[in-house]
Amino acid sequence: MKYKGGSKYVYIIFVLAMVVVVGNAFGQQSQRPSVEEIVAKIKQDLKLNDDQAVKITPIVQNQIQQMQAIIKQAQEKVRADLQALEQNTEAKLAQVLTPEQMTEFKIRQQQTSPQAAKQPAPQKK
């Protein structure tokens, strides 16, 4: 069954995807538009009547929730994959570097890491 006004639905999905993806990319979760703001924008752009705006509101809300869940899962997977890669790399480096070099490597790595301020650097022995 073809959805009447299918291009409107595609537009809604596009607007939502851009809002969520761009907001997450820049870490601006607090600056994301609300569901009401998104619906108002779609209503204005597509010249929806009040009944249509009411009907798309739960669709927009559901879309945002699902996209946020997908993005959170993706972020968690990327974080885990990067951590595994880092551990694997360190294990390989430890086979080549001396213990002193390895300690220095970890110190320098933490100093250049975005999370450097959150974690104390390993102490030299």
Question: How many domains in all?
Answer: 1
Q: Provide the residue-averaged pLDDT.
A: 79
Query: How far apart lie the N and C ends?
Result: 70 Å
Q: Give Rg in angstroms.
A: 23 Å
Instruction: Give the helices and strands as they follow along the chain.
Output: HHHH
Task: Give the helix/strand class.
Answer: mainly alpha
Please estimate the helix content: over 70%
Report strand %.
under 5%
Shape: rod-shaped
Task: Walk me through this protein's architecture.
There is one protein chain. The model has no long low-confidence stretch (mean pLDDT 79). 74% of the residues lie in helices and 0% in strands. The chain has helices at residues 6-25, 35-46, 50-96, 99-112. By secondary structure, the protein is an all-alpha fold. The chain has one domain (6-112). It is built from 4 helices and no strands.
What are the SSEs and their pairings?
Blueprint: H1 6-25, H2 35-46, H3 50-96, H4 99-112
Helix pairs in contact: 1-3, 2-3
Name the descriptors.
125 residues
Question: What's a quick, concise take on this entry?
Answer:
The protein is mainly alpha-helical and 125 residues long. The protein has helices at residues 6-25, 35-46, 50-96, 99-112. The relative contact order is 0.08.
